[in-house]
Amino acid sequence: MKLEQSKSKQKGSLIIFVIIIIFIFTMIMIPVVASLISRMQLLKLSIAREQAFQIAEAGRNYYEWHFIKFPGDYNDDGATDLAGATEQAYDIPARDYTDTETQQVIGYFSLHIIQPPQGADNIIVQSTGWTNEYPNVKRTVEAKYYRDSVAQYAVLTNSPGYIFTNIGGKFYSTSGVRDVIPTASASIISQKCANSDCSTYSTYVCPVEDNMPCDGAAAMPAIFNTYCNTSNQCTINGTPASTKKICSADSDCASITTCDSTTSTCIIGGNTGTACSTDDDCAGVSTTSAKSWWTEPLDADITWTSTISDGVLGTIKAKTDSTIGYYGYYIGITTPANTRYINLNAVAGGNNGCSIVFNPEGTFDVYKVNTLSPAYTDAVYLDGTGTNGQTTSHSTDSTDYVTRTKVICNTVAGATCSGESFVIPENDFVIYVENGYRNVWVEGTVKGRVTVAAATLPYNGGYTVFPSIFIPNNLVYNTSACNGLCALGLISQNYILISHDAPANLEVDGSLITQYKSIGRLTYTGGTCNSGLCINVTGVTCSSDADCRDTDKGTLTTFGSFISNGKSYFGNSQPAGYQNWNFNYDSGFLSAPPPYCPVLNSTYKLNYWRIVN
Question: Per the UniProt record, which residue ranges are transmembrane (predicted)?
Fold first, then answer.
Protein backbone atom coordinates (compact mmCIF):
# COMPACT_ATOMS: atom_id res chain seq x y z
CA MET A 1 0.00 0.00 0.00
CA LYS A 2 2.76 2.37 0.91
CA LEU A 3 4.59 1.43 -2.30
CA GLU A 4 1.55 2.29 -4.37
CA GLN A 5 1.13 5.61 -2.60
CA SER A 6 4.80 6.40 -3.25
CA LYS A 7 4.43 5.63 -6.97
CA SER A 8 1.32 7.76 -7.13
CA LYS A 9 3.16 10.71 -5.56
CA GLN A 10 6.05 10.30 -8.01
CA LYS A 11 3.63 10.21 -10.95
CA GLY A 12 1.92 13.33 -9.71
CA SER A 13 5.21 15.13 -9.30
CA LEU A 14 6.20 14.13 -12.81
CA ILE A 15 2.97 15.49 -14.21
CA ILE A 16 3.46 18.73 -12.34
CA PHE A 17 7.02 18.92 -13.61
CA VAL A 18 5.88 18.31 -17.19
CA ILE A 19 3.18 20.95 -16.79
CA ILE A 20 5.74 23.40 -15.45
CA ILE A 21 8.09 22.63 -18.37
CA ILE A 22 5.27 23.07 -20.85
CA PHE A 23 4.26 26.31 -19.18
CA ILE A 24 7.81 27.61 -19.24
CA PHE A 25 8.22 26.55 -22.87
CA THR A 26 4.92 28.18 -23.77
CA MET A 27 5.88 31.39 -22.04
CA ILE A 28 9.14 31.38 -23.94
CA MET A 29 7.58 30.52 -27.31
CA ILE A 30 4.66 32.95 -27.21
CA PRO A 31 6.82 36.04 -27.82
CA VAL A 32 8.93 34.08 -30.28
CA VAL A 33 5.86 33.07 -32.25
CA ALA A 34 4.42 36.57 -31.92
CA SER A 35 7.66 37.97 -33.22
CA LEU A 36 7.61 35.55 -36.13
CA ILE A 37 4.01 36.47 -36.92
CA SER A 38 4.88 40.15 -36.69
CA ARG A 39 7.87 39.68 -38.94
CA MET A 40 5.75 37.77 -41.46
CA GLN A 41 3.18 40.54 -41.38
CA LEU A 42 5.87 43.18 -41.91
CA LEU A 43 7.27 41.13 -44.76
CA LYS A 44 3.85 40.90 -46.37
CA LEU A 45 3.36 44.65 -45.91
CA SER A 46 6.78 45.29 -47.42
CA ILE A 47 5.87 43.10 -50.37
CA ALA A 48 2.53 44.93 -50.66
CA ARG A 49 4.34 48.29 -50.65
CA GLU A 50 6.68 47.12 -53.39
CA GLN A 51 3.75 45.74 -55.39
CA ALA A 52 1.89 49.03 -54.92
CA PHE A 53 4.95 50.91 -56.17
CA GLN A 54 5.23 48.66 -59.23
CA ILE A 55 1.52 49.12 -59.95
CA ALA A 56 1.92 52.91 -59.64
CA GLU A 57 4.82 52.78 -62.10
CA ALA A 58 2.69 50.69 -64.45
CA GLY A 59 0.04 53.40 -64.30
CA ARG A 60 2.59 56.07 -65.17
CA ASN A 61 3.91 53.99 -68.06
CA TYR A 62 0.35 53.41 -69.28
CA TYR A 63 -0.41 57.12 -69.45
CA GLU A 64 2.92 57.87 -71.11
CA TRP A 65 1.90 55.41 -73.84
CA HIS A 66 -1.64 56.79 -73.94
CA PHE A 67 -0.51 60.37 -74.43
CA ILE A 68 1.73 59.36 -77.34
CA LYS A 69 -1.27 57.71 -78.98
CA PHE A 70 -3.74 60.47 -78.07
CA PRO A 71 -1.86 63.80 -77.89
CA GLY A 72 -3.76 66.46 -76.02
CA ASP A 73 -5.93 63.98 -74.09
CA TYR A 74 -5.50 64.72 -70.39
CA ASN A 75 -8.74 63.03 -69.24
CA ASP A 76 -8.00 59.54 -70.61
CA ASP A 77 -11.11 59.50 -72.78
CA GLY A 78 -9.50 59.68 -76.21
CA ALA A 79 -10.59 63.30 -76.83
CA THR A 80 -8.41 66.38 -77.01
CA ASP A 81 -8.84 68.69 -74.03
CA LEU A 82 -8.60 72.45 -74.54
CA ALA A 83 -6.02 74.28 -72.45
CA GLY A 84 -7.25 76.86 -70.00
CA ALA A 85 -5.79 80.04 -68.61
CA THR A 86 -4.48 78.15 -65.59
CA GLU A 87 -3.32 74.59 -64.96
CA GLN A 88 -6.17 72.09 -65.22
CA ALA A 89 -6.18 68.90 -63.14
CA TYR A 90 -8.00 65.67 -64.00
CA ASP A 91 -8.59 62.74 -61.63
CA ILE A 92 -8.96 59.53 -63.61
CA PRO A 93 -10.89 56.69 -61.85
CA ALA A 94 -9.08 53.55 -60.73
CA ARG A 95 -8.11 51.03 -63.41
CA ASP A 96 -7.49 47.31 -62.98
CA TYR A 97 -3.97 45.98 -62.76
CA THR A 98 -3.78 42.38 -64.00
CA ASP A 99 -1.01 39.91 -63.19
CA THR A 100 0.30 38.81 -66.58
CA GLU A 101 1.07 35.28 -65.31
CA THR A 102 -2.20 34.47 -63.53
CA GLN A 103 -4.41 36.89 -65.50
CA GLN A 104 -5.97 37.84 -62.19
CA VAL A 105 -6.66 41.40 -61.07
CA ILE A 106 -4.31 41.90 -58.13
CA GLY A 107 -4.58 45.65 -57.68
CA TYR A 108 -5.49 49.06 -59.09
CA PHE A 109 -3.98 52.39 -60.07
CA SER A 110 -5.51 55.84 -60.26
CA LEU A 111 -4.14 58.83 -62.18
CA HIS A 112 -4.00 62.55 -61.44
CA ILE A 113 -3.07 64.47 -64.61
CA ILE A 114 -2.07 68.13 -64.45
CA GLN A 115 -2.58 69.79 -67.81
CA PRO A 116 -0.42 72.84 -68.54
CA PRO A 117 -1.97 76.25 -69.10
CA GLN A 118 -2.27 77.42 -72.69
CA GLY A 119 1.07 78.30 -74.20
CA ALA A 120 3.02 75.96 -71.92
CA ASP A 121 4.02 72.41 -72.74
CA ASN A 122 4.58 70.55 -69.47
CA ILE A 123 2.50 67.58 -68.36
CA ILE A 124 2.59 66.24 -64.79
CA VAL A 125 1.41 62.68 -64.16
CA GLN A 126 0.78 61.37 -60.64
CA SER A 127 0.01 57.65 -60.44
CA THR A 128 -1.12 55.89 -57.23
CA GLY A 129 -1.10 52.08 -56.94
CA TRP A 130 -2.37 49.54 -54.38
CA THR A 131 -3.15 45.82 -54.10
CA ASN A 132 -6.44 44.01 -53.41
CA GLU A 133 -5.04 42.42 -50.27
CA TYR A 134 -3.80 45.67 -48.76
CA PRO A 135 -5.94 48.48 -50.22
CA ASN A 136 -4.72 50.97 -47.62
CA VAL A 137 -1.07 50.50 -48.54
CA LYS A 138 -0.68 52.98 -51.40
CA ARG A 139 2.34 54.30 -53.26
CA THR A 140 2.44 57.37 -55.52
CA VAL A 141 4.96 58.34 -58.16
CA GLU A 142 5.09 61.64 -60.05
CA ALA A 143 6.63 62.42 -63.43
CA LYS A 144 6.89 65.56 -65.54
CA TYR A 145 7.03 65.44 -69.34
CA TYR A 146 7.93 68.04 -71.95
CA ARG A 147 8.52 68.33 -75.69
CA ASP A 148 11.72 69.59 -77.28
CA SER A 149 11.38 73.13 -78.56
CA VAL A 150 13.83 75.17 -80.60
CA ALA A 151 14.80 76.85 -77.31
CA GLN A 152 16.56 73.64 -76.21
CA TYR A 153 19.43 75.06 -78.27
CA ALA A 154 21.44 78.00 -77.00
CA VAL A 155 22.10 78.84 -80.65
CA LEU A 156 20.23 77.35 -83.60
CA THR A 157 20.87 78.76 -87.07
CA ASN A 158 19.93 77.83 -90.62
CA SER A 159 23.12 79.50 -91.87
CA PRO A 160 26.85 78.87 -91.39
CA GLY A 161 27.71 78.68 -87.71
CA TYR A 162 30.14 81.24 -86.31
CA ILE A 163 31.32 81.21 -82.72
CA PHE A 164 32.63 84.46 -81.29
CA THR A 165 32.22 83.70 -77.59
CA ASN A 166 31.75 80.87 -75.10
CA ILE A 167 28.35 79.20 -75.57
CA GLY A 168 27.13 77.32 -72.49
CA GLY A 169 24.25 75.47 -74.16
CA LYS A 170 23.98 73.46 -77.38
CA PHE A 171 25.09 75.07 -80.66
CA TYR A 172 23.57 73.77 -83.89
CA SER A 173 23.93 74.95 -87.48
CA THR A 174 22.08 73.25 -90.32
CA SER A 175 24.82 74.47 -92.67
CA GLY A 176 27.77 73.50 -90.49
CA VAL A 177 30.24 75.25 -88.22
CA ARG A 178 32.76 77.37 -90.08
CA ASP A 179 34.52 79.71 -87.70
CA VAL A 180 35.74 78.99 -84.19
CA ILE A 181 37.89 81.53 -82.41
CA PRO A 182 40.40 79.46 -80.41
CA THR A 183 39.58 81.21 -77.14
CA ALA A 184 35.85 80.47 -77.49
CA SER A 185 34.11 77.22 -76.66
CA ALA A 186 30.68 75.74 -77.29
CA SER A 187 28.76 72.49 -77.10
CA ILE A 188 28.72 72.09 -80.88
CA ILE A 189 26.50 69.35 -82.24
CA SER A 190 26.50 70.05 -85.97
CA GLN A 191 28.79 69.21 -88.85
CA LYS A 192 31.66 71.03 -90.52
CA CYS A 193 30.82 72.82 -93.76
CA ALA A 194 31.02 70.99 -97.06
CA ASN A 195 33.62 71.94 -99.64
CA SER A 196 30.92 73.17 -102.03
CA ASP A 197 30.05 75.99 -99.63
CA CYS A 198 33.56 77.37 -99.42
CA SER A 199 33.54 79.42 -102.62
CA THR A 200 30.32 81.19 -101.63
CA TYR A 201 31.70 82.20 -98.26
CA SER A 202 35.32 82.49 -99.29
CA THR A 203 35.69 86.00 -97.89
CA TYR A 204 35.18 85.02 -94.28
CA VAL A 205 35.35 81.27 -93.75
CA CYS A 206 38.13 78.70 -93.43
CA PRO A 207 39.46 80.43 -90.33
CA VAL A 208 43.14 81.19 -90.12
CA GLU A 209 42.85 80.85 -86.34
CA ASP A 210 42.59 77.08 -86.56
CA ASN A 211 44.08 76.52 -90.03
CA MET A 212 41.32 74.08 -90.75
CA PRO A 213 40.49 73.01 -94.31
CA CYS A 214 37.08 74.02 -95.65
CA ASP A 215 36.31 70.61 -97.13
CA GLY A 216 35.68 68.97 -93.77
CA ALA A 217 38.71 66.66 -94.11
CA ALA A 218 39.64 67.42 -90.54
CA ALA A 219 36.43 65.78 -89.37
CA MET A 220 37.02 62.47 -91.10
CA PRO A 221 40.70 62.44 -92.07
CA ALA A 222 41.95 60.33 -94.95
CA ILE A 223 44.90 58.64 -93.22
CA PHE A 224 48.17 58.91 -95.10
CA ASN A 225 49.88 55.76 -96.35
CA THR A 226 51.41 54.79 -93.05
CA TYR A 227 52.71 51.28 -92.40
CA CYS A 228 55.14 49.31 -90.29
CA ASN A 229 58.39 48.53 -92.16
CA THR A 230 60.68 45.54 -91.75
CA SER A 231 62.72 47.41 -89.14
CA ASN A 232 59.60 47.70 -86.99
CA GLN A 233 59.50 51.45 -87.56
CA CYS A 234 56.47 53.42 -88.77
CA THR A 235 56.90 54.98 -92.19
CA ILE A 236 54.86 57.64 -94.03
CA ASN A 237 54.67 57.26 -97.81
CA GLY A 238 57.83 55.14 -97.73
CA THR A 239 59.86 57.51 -95.52
CA PRO A 240 60.57 56.56 -91.91
CA ALA A 241 58.73 58.90 -89.61
CA SER A 242 60.92 61.18 -87.55
CA THR A 243 58.79 60.19 -84.56
CA LYS A 244 60.69 56.84 -84.79
CA LYS A 245 57.59 55.10 -83.54
CA ILE A 246 58.25 51.41 -82.91
CA CYS A 247 55.60 49.08 -84.32
CA SER A 248 54.75 45.46 -84.84
CA ALA A 249 51.80 45.91 -87.23
CA ASP A 250 50.54 48.55 -89.69
CA SER A 251 47.68 49.40 -87.32
CA ASP A 252 50.24 50.71 -84.81
CA CYS A 253 51.03 53.54 -87.24
CA ALA A 254 47.48 54.76 -87.89
CA SER A 255 47.79 57.91 -85.78
CA ILE A 256 51.13 59.15 -87.17
CA THR A 257 51.05 62.81 -88.13
CA THR A 258 53.60 65.04 -89.82
CA CYS A 259 54.63 68.64 -89.33
CA ASP A 260 53.82 70.68 -92.42
CA SER A 261 56.75 73.02 -93.12
CA THR A 262 54.54 75.66 -94.76
CA THR A 263 51.96 76.10 -92.02
CA SER A 264 54.04 74.72 -89.10
CA THR A 265 51.06 72.68 -87.99
CA CYS A 266 50.54 68.95 -87.54
CA ILE A 267 48.72 67.37 -90.46
CA ILE A 268 47.04 64.04 -91.09
CA GLY A 269 44.69 64.13 -94.06
CA GLY A 270 44.00 67.74 -93.06
CA ASN A 271 45.32 70.30 -90.64
CA THR A 272 44.83 69.58 -86.94
CA GLY A 273 45.50 73.14 -85.81
CA THR A 274 48.33 71.95 -83.53
CA ALA A 275 51.54 74.00 -83.91
CA CYS A 276 54.84 72.18 -84.48
CA SER A 277 58.41 72.55 -85.67
CA THR A 278 59.24 68.87 -86.30
CA ASP A 279 57.32 65.65 -86.79
CA ASP A 280 58.22 64.71 -83.23
CA ASP A 281 55.93 67.49 -82.00
CA CYS A 282 53.00 65.70 -83.63
CA ALA A 283 53.34 62.37 -81.86
CA GLY A 284 49.92 61.28 -80.63
CA VAL A 285 48.10 64.18 -82.33
CA SER A 286 45.08 63.35 -84.49
CA THR A 287 42.50 65.55 -86.16
CA THR A 288 39.69 63.36 -84.92
CA SER A 289 40.57 64.08 -81.31
CA ALA A 290 41.28 67.75 -82.03
CA LYS A 291 37.90 68.45 -83.67
CA SER A 292 35.75 65.43 -82.90
CA TRP A 293 32.60 67.54 -82.72
CA TRP A 294 32.64 67.95 -86.49
CA THR A 295 31.50 64.38 -86.91
CA GLU A 296 28.17 64.83 -85.11
CA PRO A 297 25.08 63.90 -87.16
CA LEU A 298 22.40 66.32 -88.30
CA ASP A 299 19.19 66.75 -86.30
CA ALA A 300 16.43 65.23 -88.41
CA ASP A 301 13.76 67.14 -86.48
CA ILE A 302 14.95 70.52 -87.76
CA THR A 303 13.35 71.44 -91.07
CA TRP A 304 13.50 75.20 -91.10
CA THR A 305 10.46 75.94 -93.26
CA SER A 306 8.20 73.83 -91.05
CA THR A 307 9.89 74.43 -87.68
CA ILE A 308 9.86 78.26 -87.87
CA SER A 309 6.72 78.70 -89.92
CA ASP A 310 3.71 80.92 -90.62
CA GLY A 311 1.76 78.30 -88.67
CA VAL A 312 3.63 79.17 -85.47
CA LEU A 313 2.92 82.87 -86.00
CA GLY A 314 -0.68 82.08 -86.92
CA THR A 315 -1.14 80.23 -83.62
CA ILE A 316 0.10 83.26 -81.71
CA LYS A 317 -2.17 85.56 -83.72
CA ALA A 318 -5.17 83.31 -82.99
CA LYS A 319 -4.56 83.58 -79.24
CA THR A 320 -5.53 87.27 -79.37
CA ASP A 321 -9.12 86.28 -80.21
CA SER A 322 -11.17 87.38 -77.21
CA THR A 323 -13.70 84.59 -77.64
CA ILE A 324 -11.25 81.95 -76.39
CA GLY A 325 -10.01 83.75 -73.28
CA TYR A 326 -7.69 86.42 -72.01
CA TYR A 327 -4.52 85.34 -73.78
CA GLY A 328 -3.14 88.41 -75.54
CA TYR A 329 -3.42 91.65 -77.49
CA TYR A 330 -3.50 92.28 -81.22
CA ILE A 331 -1.81 95.53 -82.30
CA GLY A 332 -2.46 96.81 -85.82
CA ILE A 333 -4.07 99.36 -88.11
CA THR A 334 -7.47 97.80 -88.77
CA THR A 335 -10.29 96.77 -86.47
CA PRO A 336 -11.07 93.06 -86.58
CA ALA A 337 -13.68 91.46 -84.32
CA ASN A 338 -11.51 91.45 -81.22
CA THR A 339 -12.25 93.30 -77.99
CA ARG A 340 -8.56 93.53 -77.00
CA TYR A 341 -7.43 95.16 -80.20
CA ILE A 342 -5.07 98.14 -80.08
CA ASN A 343 -5.75 100.24 -83.17
CA LEU A 344 -2.72 102.42 -83.88
CA ASN A 345 -4.76 104.48 -86.35
CA ALA A 346 -6.84 105.69 -83.42
CA VAL A 347 -3.74 107.33 -81.92
CA ALA A 348 -2.49 110.74 -83.03
CA GLY A 349 0.69 111.14 -85.09
CA GLY A 350 2.31 109.43 -88.01
CA ASN A 351 2.65 105.65 -88.01
CA ASN A 352 6.28 104.53 -88.29
CA GLY A 353 6.00 101.49 -86.10
CA CYS A 354 5.11 100.34 -82.61
CA SER A 355 7.04 100.55 -79.33
CA ILE A 356 6.45 98.13 -76.42
CA VAL A 357 7.95 98.85 -73.00
CA PHE A 358 7.71 96.27 -70.19
CA ASN A 359 7.40 97.50 -66.62
CA PRO A 360 8.84 95.58 -63.61
CA GLU A 361 5.49 95.33 -61.77
CA GLY A 362 4.03 93.08 -64.50
CA THR A 363 2.56 95.60 -66.96
CA PHE A 364 3.54 96.98 -70.34
CA ASP A 365 3.06 100.22 -72.28
CA VAL A 366 2.32 100.58 -75.98
CA TYR A 367 3.41 103.54 -78.11
CA LYS A 368 2.77 104.52 -81.71
CA VAL A 369 6.13 105.53 -83.17
CA ASN A 370 5.80 108.86 -84.99
CA THR A 371 9.29 109.76 -86.22
CA LEU A 372 12.53 107.85 -86.75
CA SER A 373 16.24 108.63 -86.58
CA PRO A 374 18.18 109.14 -89.84
CA ALA A 375 19.35 106.05 -91.68
CA TYR A 376 23.08 105.27 -91.96
CA THR A 377 24.01 104.71 -95.58
CA ASP A 378 27.02 102.59 -94.56
CA ALA A 379 24.94 100.07 -92.55
CA VAL A 380 25.35 96.43 -93.68
CA TYR A 381 24.88 92.98 -92.20
CA LEU A 382 27.10 89.95 -92.80
CA ASP A 383 24.28 87.53 -92.16
CA GLY A 384 24.60 84.99 -94.95
CA THR A 385 21.15 85.85 -96.36
CA GLY A 386 22.08 88.70 -98.73
CA THR A 387 23.68 88.74 -102.17
CA ASN A 388 25.78 85.59 -102.66
CA GLY A 389 24.93 84.68 -99.10
CA GLN A 390 27.13 87.41 -97.67
CA THR A 391 26.30 91.08 -97.13
CA THR A 392 22.85 92.63 -96.85
CA SER A 393 22.63 96.41 -97.23
CA HIS A 394 20.63 98.37 -94.65
CA SER A 395 21.39 101.83 -96.01
CA THR A 396 17.71 102.88 -95.84
CA ASP A 397 16.95 101.47 -92.41
CA SER A 398 16.29 103.65 -89.36
CA THR A 399 16.95 101.59 -86.26
CA ASP A 400 15.83 104.08 -83.57
CA TYR A 401 12.60 105.92 -82.81
CA VAL A 402 12.68 109.64 -82.01
CA THR A 403 9.11 110.58 -81.07
CA ARG A 404 6.16 108.38 -80.09
CA THR A 405 2.63 108.67 -78.71
CA LYS A 406 1.45 106.54 -75.81
CA VAL A 407 -1.67 104.37 -76.10
CA ILE A 408 -3.70 104.88 -72.90
CA CYS A 409 -4.92 101.49 -71.66
CA ASN A 410 -8.46 102.53 -70.65
CA THR A 411 -9.14 103.70 -74.21
CA VAL A 412 -8.92 100.08 -75.44
CA ALA A 413 -12.14 98.08 -75.17
CA GLY A 414 -11.83 94.99 -72.99
CA ALA A 415 -8.34 95.85 -71.76
CA THR A 416 -7.18 95.07 -68.22
CA CYS A 417 -5.40 98.16 -66.95
CA SER A 418 -3.22 99.43 -64.16
CA GLY A 419 -3.36 103.17 -64.62
CA GLU A 420 -2.35 103.88 -68.22
CA SER A 421 -0.54 100.53 -68.57
CA PHE A 422 -1.73 97.12 -69.80
CA VAL A 423 -1.61 94.22 -67.31
CA ILE A 424 0.20 90.95 -68.05
CA PRO A 425 -1.94 88.14 -66.56
CA GLU A 426 -0.51 85.24 -64.59
CA ASN A 427 -1.13 82.78 -67.42
CA ASP A 428 1.01 82.68 -70.56
CA PHE A 429 0.46 85.75 -72.69
CA VAL A 430 1.09 86.99 -76.25
CA ILE A 431 1.39 90.36 -77.98
CA TYR A 432 0.96 90.07 -81.74
CA VAL A 433 1.84 93.10 -83.90
CA GLU A 434 0.63 93.22 -87.51
CA ASN A 435 1.43 96.69 -88.81
CA GLY A 436 2.36 96.05 -92.43
CA TYR A 437 6.10 96.36 -93.08
CA ARG A 438 6.60 98.69 -90.09
CA ASN A 439 8.95 97.66 -87.29
CA VAL A 440 8.50 96.99 -83.56
CA TRP A 441 10.73 98.23 -80.70
CA VAL A 442 10.81 96.15 -77.48
CA GLU A 443 12.53 97.11 -74.21
CA GLY A 444 12.09 97.20 -70.42
CA THR A 445 11.83 94.81 -67.46
CA VAL A 446 9.61 91.75 -67.80
CA LYS A 447 7.56 90.08 -65.08
CA GLY A 448 5.62 87.08 -66.36
CA ARG A 449 5.64 84.72 -69.32
CA VAL A 450 5.04 86.52 -72.60
CA THR A 451 5.85 86.24 -76.31
CA VAL A 452 5.96 89.24 -78.68
CA ALA A 453 5.59 88.50 -82.40
CA ALA A 454 5.98 90.90 -85.34
CA ALA A 455 4.57 89.57 -88.60
CA THR A 456 2.26 90.12 -91.56
CA LEU A 457 0.00 87.15 -92.33
CA PRO A 458 -0.48 86.19 -95.03
CA TYR A 459 2.60 87.87 -96.42
CA ASN A 460 1.78 90.61 -98.93
CA GLY A 461 4.22 90.34 -101.79
CA GLY A 462 3.92 94.08 -102.37
CA TYR A 463 5.94 94.82 -99.22
CA THR A 464 9.64 95.14 -99.84
CA VAL A 465 10.53 93.85 -96.38
CA PHE A 466 8.97 91.99 -93.48
CA PRO A 467 8.61 93.73 -90.11
CA SER A 468 11.65 93.53 -87.83
CA ILE A 469 12.05 93.82 -84.06
CA PHE A 470 14.55 96.33 -82.68
CA ILE A 471 15.94 96.38 -79.14
CA PRO A 472 16.77 100.00 -78.22
CA ASN A 473 17.49 99.53 -74.50
CA ASN A 474 18.02 96.83 -71.87
CA LEU A 475 15.46 94.03 -72.05
CA VAL A 476 15.67 92.02 -68.82
CA TYR A 477 13.66 89.97 -66.29
CA ASN A 478 12.51 91.27 -62.93
CA THR A 479 14.62 88.63 -61.19
CA SER A 480 13.52 89.61 -57.68
CA ALA A 481 9.87 88.92 -58.53
CA CYS A 482 10.11 86.16 -61.11
CA ASN A 483 11.58 83.36 -58.95
CA GLY A 484 13.07 81.90 -62.11
CA LEU A 485 9.65 81.54 -63.79
CA CYS A 486 9.75 84.51 -66.17
CA ALA A 487 10.18 83.84 -69.88
CA LEU A 488 10.21 86.20 -72.86
CA GLY A 489 9.99 85.21 -76.50
CA LEU A 490 10.61 87.54 -79.45
CA ILE A 491 9.57 86.17 -82.85
CA SER A 492 10.15 88.24 -85.99
CA GLN A 493 9.48 87.43 -89.62
CA ASN A 494 12.49 89.55 -90.54
CA TYR A 495 15.38 90.67 -88.30
CA ILE A 496 15.84 91.10 -84.56
CA LEU A 497 18.43 93.86 -84.26
CA ILE A 498 19.95 95.98 -81.52
CA SER A 499 19.41 99.63 -82.38
CA HIS A 500 22.29 101.87 -83.40
CA ASP A 501 21.72 104.13 -80.38
CA ALA A 502 21.30 101.34 -77.83
CA PRO A 503 23.44 101.94 -74.73
CA ALA A 504 26.86 100.45 -74.16
CA ASN A 505 27.10 97.34 -71.97
CA LEU A 506 23.61 96.17 -72.95
CA GLU A 507 21.70 93.17 -71.49
CA VAL A 508 19.05 91.20 -73.38
CA ASP A 509 17.06 88.33 -71.80
CA GLY A 510 14.79 85.94 -73.67
CA SER A 511 14.51 83.56 -76.60
CA LEU A 512 15.06 85.48 -79.85
CA ILE A 513 13.63 83.84 -83.00
CA THR A 514 13.68 85.00 -86.63
CA GLN A 515 11.83 83.29 -89.46
CA TYR A 516 13.66 84.62 -92.52
CA LYS A 517 16.60 86.76 -91.42
CA SER A 518 19.07 87.19 -88.55
CA ILE A 519 19.75 88.39 -85.01
CA GLY A 520 22.39 90.95 -84.15
CA ARG A 521 23.46 94.51 -84.76
CA LEU A 522 24.25 96.19 -88.06
CA THR A 523 27.85 96.88 -88.97
CA TYR A 524 28.60 100.50 -89.82
CA THR A 525 31.58 100.42 -92.14
CA GLY A 526 32.71 103.97 -91.42
CA GLY A 527 31.48 107.28 -92.79
CA THR A 528 33.21 110.20 -94.44
CA CYS A 529 33.27 113.80 -93.22
CA ASN A 530 32.59 116.22 -96.08
CA SER A 531 32.44 120.00 -95.47
CA GLY A 532 31.62 119.53 -91.81
CA LEU A 533 28.82 116.97 -92.38
CA CYS A 534 28.85 113.17 -92.28
CA ILE A 535 27.80 111.82 -95.65
CA ASN A 536 26.74 108.46 -94.18
CA VAL A 537 24.08 109.97 -91.91
CA THR A 538 22.01 113.11 -92.37
CA GLY A 539 22.39 116.00 -89.93
CA VAL A 540 25.52 114.86 -88.08
CA THR A 541 28.30 117.44 -87.99
CA CYS A 542 31.95 116.43 -87.99
CA SER A 543 35.50 117.65 -88.09
CA SER A 544 37.01 114.36 -89.27
CA ASP A 545 35.98 110.96 -90.61
CA ALA A 546 36.28 109.56 -87.08
CA ASP A 547 33.24 111.60 -86.01
CA CYS A 548 31.11 109.68 -88.52
CA ARG A 549 32.05 106.20 -87.38
CA ASP A 550 30.32 103.92 -84.95
CA THR A 551 31.76 103.65 -81.45
CA ASP A 552 32.77 100.70 -79.30
CA LYS A 553 29.60 99.63 -77.48
CA GLY A 554 31.39 97.58 -74.83
CA THR A 555 29.86 94.30 -73.63
CA LEU A 556 26.64 92.64 -74.70
CA THR A 557 25.23 90.26 -72.06
CA THR A 558 22.49 87.85 -73.10
CA PHE A 559 20.48 85.31 -71.10
CA GLY A 560 18.38 83.01 -73.24
CA SER A 561 18.69 81.54 -76.73
CA PHE A 562 19.23 82.66 -80.34
CA ILE A 563 17.20 80.96 -83.09
CA SER A 564 17.75 82.49 -86.54
CA ASN A 565 17.61 81.76 -90.24
CA GLY A 566 20.76 83.84 -90.77
CA LYS A 567 23.76 83.96 -88.50
CA SER A 568 23.93 86.10 -85.36
CA TYR A 569 26.40 88.95 -85.67
CA PHE A 570 26.87 92.03 -83.49
CA GLY A 571 29.43 94.00 -85.47
CA ASN A 572 32.22 93.13 -83.06
CA SER A 573 34.95 94.11 -85.51
CA GLN A 574 36.62 97.50 -84.96
CA PRO A 575 35.54 100.20 -84.80
CA ALA A 576 31.85 99.24 -84.60
CA GLY A 577 29.62 97.22 -82.34
CA TYR A 578 29.83 95.27 -79.10
CA GLN A 579 33.40 94.10 -78.66
CA ASN A 580 32.53 91.46 -76.06
CA TRP A 581 29.60 89.06 -75.91
CA ASN A 582 28.79 87.47 -72.55
CA PHE A 583 26.45 84.65 -73.60
CA ASN A 584 24.38 82.82 -70.96
CA TYR A 585 21.94 80.07 -71.87
CA ASP A 586 18.65 79.93 -69.95
CA SER A 587 18.44 76.24 -69.02
CA GLY A 588 14.85 76.80 -67.87
CA PHE A 589 13.92 76.82 -71.56
CA LEU A 590 14.59 73.07 -71.71
CA SER A 591 11.29 72.29 -69.98
CA ALA A 592 9.53 75.68 -69.90
CA PRO A 593 10.26 77.71 -73.05
CA PRO A 594 8.39 80.97 -73.74
CA PRO A 595 4.71 80.69 -74.75
CA TYR A 596 4.13 79.00 -78.12
CA CYS A 597 7.82 78.51 -78.77
CA PRO A 598 8.09 76.27 -81.89
CA VAL A 599 8.44 72.59 -81.02
CA LEU A 600 10.70 70.20 -82.92
CA ASN A 601 8.57 67.07 -82.66
CA SER A 602 5.45 65.69 -80.99
CA THR A 603 7.27 63.25 -78.71
CA TYR A 604 7.18 63.97 -74.99
CA LYS A 605 10.28 63.34 -72.90
CA LEU A 606 10.65 62.63 -69.19
CA ASN A 607 11.86 65.73 -67.37
CA TYR A 608 11.87 64.38 -63.80
CA TRP A 609 10.56 61.42 -61.80
CA ARG A 610 10.11 61.08 -58.05
CA ILE A 611 8.41 58.93 -55.40
CA VAL A 612 5.76 60.97 -53.58
CA ASN A 613 5.13 58.43 -50.79
Answer: 12-37
